[in-house]
Amino acid sequence: MVTTVSKMKPSPASFLPLVVDYRQKAAAAGRIPTNFLRRELGPTEREILTSRVIDRSLRPLFPEGYCYETQVICNLLAVDGVNDPVMASINAASAALSLSDIPWNGPVGAVRVGFINNEVVINPTRKEQSESSLNLIVTSTKHNLVVMLEASAENILQQDFLKSIKAGVKECQAIVQAIQQLQKHYGKVKRELELPSPPSEELVQAVKSLCEMRLREIFSDHSHDKLSRDVAVQLVRTDVHEKLNKSVGEPVDSHVFSGVFNQICKETFRSMIFEDNVRCDGRTMGQLRNISCQVDLYKPLHGSSLFQRGQTQVFCTVALDSPDSTLKLDPVTILTSGLKEKNFFLHYEFPPYATKEVGRSGPTGRRELGHGALAEKALRPVVPMDFPFTIRLTSEVLESNGSSSMASVCGGSLALMDAGVPISHPVAGVAVGLVSRYEGTDTKHLEDYHLLTDILGIEDYMGDMDFKLAGTKKGITALQADIKVPGLPLKVIMEAVLQATEAKSAIIDIMNETLSKQRKQKDNWPVIEKLEVPPNKRSKFIGMGGSNLKRLMVETGVQVSHVDENTYTIFAPYQSAMDEAKEMIEKLLASERQPELEFGAIYTAKVVEVRDIGVMVTLYPSMNPTLLHNSQLDQRKVSHPSALGLEVGSELQVKYFGRDPVSGMIRLSRKVLQSPASAAIRNLSGNSNS
Question: Taking every annotated instance into account, which residue ranges of this chain make up the domain S1 motif (predicted)?
Answer without folding.
Answer: 600-671
